[in-house]
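Database export, one record per block. Field names are fixed; values are copied verbatim from the stored entry.
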Amino acid sequence: MAVTSTGYQLNKQPIAQSFYVDEPNGIFVTKVDLFFATKDASLPVQIQIRPMENGVPSSSEIIPGSQVVLASSQVTTDLVGPDLTPTSFTFEEPVFLRGELDYALIVTADSKDYQIFIAEINEFTYGSTEKRVNKQPTSGSLFYSQNGVTFTPAQNQDLSFVLHRAQFKHTNANIRLKNAAVPKKLLTADPITTTAGSTTIKFFHTNHGLQIGDTVVISGATSTGGISASNINGSRTILNRDFTGYTVTAELLLHLPTMVVVV
C-alpha cells in the first residue's frame, strides 16, 4: 500500500457513519451488520468505531476492541433484494460505548471493488419502485474520506447498517479474576547494593510496578557483600520501593566478624 509524504495511504477511501448513543448509562455493542453489493476478489475489509470530535470522526482515536477485519471470502454480497443478506462483523467481546455521545462507524478497505448499500433521502428503497426513503433512519450523517483522516459529510445520505447491542439477563453477578503470570526481567549489570552488617538488599529495577508487601522471585544472583547467592535468590518480600527499585531482606549474613575469648 503506497503512502504519501504526510502518512496518508493511497487507494484507501473509507466511509463513516455517525450515530448517537442516547442511553445515559451507555451500551455494549456485540456486532455490526453491513450490506455489500460487490467485493474484492482477495483483499479484506475492516470496520472500526471512533469517537466524534467537533462534528467529524476522529482522525486517530479508535475505540479499543472495535476493529474487525473480514477476509473477502467472509463477505456476503446481495443484489437481489428487497431483504438484503447482511455481512456480520462480530467483536471478540462486547464493546462499551459511553452514553449520550456521538460515535462513527468506519468502513475501510485497500480496494475500490467493495460497494456498500446506503440510504438516500427521496430515493427508492432497493428493489422497489414505489417505496421511497422519506426520512433519515439515524440521527447521524454519512461521511466520505480520501485518506481516513479528513471527512466530508453527506447530509442526505446514511449508511445501511444494523448495530447490535447486548442485553444482560441479570443485574448481579460474581466475577473471578486471575492474575496473569508476571514475565521474568533481566536486570542490568551490578543491580544489587548492600550495606555492611545489614541483611537489607537494594535492587535497581526501574519502573517495576511492585508494591510493598508483594513477593519477588530472585534468581541468578551471585554472592554479594558477604551474602551468599543462596541467601539472595528465592522468594523475597518487598520492604520498600520507589521508581528506581526495591529492597528485600536476605535470609542471613555469612562471614560476620566473630569474637573469640580465651580464658
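Remark 1: The chain has a mean pLDDT of 83.
Remark 2: The longest strand covers residues 87-97.
End of record.
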